Structures are given as C-alpha cells and as structure tokens.
Amino acid sequence: MRYLGFLSYRGTGFYGFERQKEKRSIQGVVEEVLSQVCGENIKIHGAGRTDSGVHALSQGFSFDTSSPLPKEKIVYAANRLLPDDILLKSLEKKDPPFDGRHSVSGKVYEYRFSYGQKDPFEVGLLTQLQRPDFDVAAFRECLSCFVGTHDFSNLTNKKDDKDNFIRTIDSIKTTVDEKAKKGVVLFSGVHFMTYQVRFMMGLAFQCAYHQKNPEDIPALMNEKPRRILSYKAPADGLYLKEVTYGSGEDD
C-alpha cells in the first residue's frame, strides 16, 4: 500500500527534514515511528528538504507499507508516539507511480517577521528584526523583482543544477501590519532551491533598511560570473505552508 501523508512540525529542534547521521531530523523521527507502528522498515519520500530550524504547516511525503492497519489507526498510533513538535495530519491511499517528491505540482512558502519590540514568546517562530525603521515600500519593491522566471544562481548555494538555476516564482504576496510592526510574505511556485527563499528575504530586508537599493536587485541577480549573495535571512521565520500534487517533478 502506498500512502500520501502530510506533516506539520516546529523545526526549531531539528537539523532539517532530511535524515542525518547522529542528528535529530524530521525524516529520521517519522521513519522510526512509522516503522514501529507498521511493524516493518519504513522509508519516506518528502516533498522537499527543509533546512535546520525551518518549520512546516503542511509537508507532504509518501511511503509504502504492507501493514494491514487502516490509515486512521496508523495516524492515531503515530501521533501517540511522535514528539510534541511533530504532527501527522493525515494519510490517503495513492497508486504507484505517485511519489511524495516527484508528483509535486505546487508549493507555498510563508515567511513571518517582526520589526518592533522583541517578544520572548515568539522566539524561534518568526524572525525578530528589532529595528522599527523599516521601509515597507522598498521591501515590497525588492520582492517584486523575484516574480516570474529568472536565473537564481546567485540566490542559492547549490553547486550545480540540472535546470541551470532557472526557476519561476508564480506570485509573492506581502502583508505588513505597520501598527503591530509585523509582516508575512507568501511565495508560490513549484521548484525552490536550497536557501532560495531565505536569500530573497535577505535582500528584501536589506532594501527595507536602505542597505541596498531595490533598483539594483535585478543586476545583482544577473551578475556573472556567479556570485552568491552574502546575506541569508534567518530560518526562524520560514514555513513550508502548502504542498499540492498533480503532474510535474519537484527538486
């Protein structure tokens, strides 16, 4: 039986999604628990590899099992065993060749931040800039430069890429509450590279504080030879918000 599952997790206490030797990872913990519940060795295929400290509201994954347990009992038993910072939200049956990674048709990443007074109860759950001199217009102007199809080779630390670092950002939606001094940015697309969203947010923050000019962003993106941009926004504010499935292949 092949299942598609969805997880939510707080990434603060993990070294990312991908299994790592002697380090706590989402994949490692989930595989251990599902193996115990199903009574066999389970390997999962995730929709992406969130890095250390990044959260997920809905991370898709797939796995195969010969367990006779109904999906409802697998979900219930798994959640009894999973730590408090991971939730198995649901399971649904799928037919091969469906795959939790390669069948992805869309993703939405969410980035949360504040630029007012520090809130100790939100540490690790959003990026706290603690600088009120935030230029919202410059921030939005910078982000608008990323919409569409571009060469993002300067906004990832991948050494090489089968698509020559070309990616399409379908939309970027920004909401800023200037009274509360908080903001949320939604990035929609299919293929995102390592640290790409955090590099985009890093440039946007630099523009918001007049460390860079939004008008210069396209030239920085297209600079050759390749020069990876230096500032990467913190992981605290990044969430994998949504994964949709259909035709297509994900990185």
Your description of this structure?
Strand 8 and strand 9 form a beta hairpin. Helices cover about 20% and strands about 30% of the residues. With about 250 residues, the protein is an alpha+beta fold. It has helices spanning about 25-40, 70-80, 135-145, 195-210, 215-220, and strands at about 1-10, 45, 55-65, 85-95, 105-115, 125-130, 150, 165-175, 180-190, 240-245. Strands 1, 2, 3, 4, 5, 6, 7, 8, 9 and 10 form a ten-stranded mixed sheet that branches. It is built from five helices and ten strands.
List the helices and strands and how they pair.
Elements: E1 2-9, H1 26-38, E2 45-46, E3 55-64, H2 71-81, E4 86-94, E5 104-114, E6 127-128, H3 136-144, E7 148-151, E8 166-177, E9 182-189, H4 196-208, H5 217-222, E10 238-245
Parallel strand pairs: 3-10, 5-6
Antiparallel strand pairs: 1-3, 1-4, 2-3, 5-9, 5-10, 7-8, 8-9
Q: Please state roughly what percent of the residues sit in beta strands, choosing from under 5%, 5-15%, 15-25%, 25-35%, 35-45% or over 45%.
A: 25-35%
Give the SSE string.
EHEEHEEEHEEEHHE
Q: Could you give the distance between the termini?
A: 25 Å
What is the mean predicted local confidence, pLDDT?
Answer: 95
Question: Which characteristics define this entry?
Answer:
251 residues; single chain; alpha+beta; 10 strands
Brief digest:
By secondary structure, the protein is of the alpha+beta class. The protein contains 5 helices and 10 strands; from the N terminus they run βαββαβββαβββααβ.
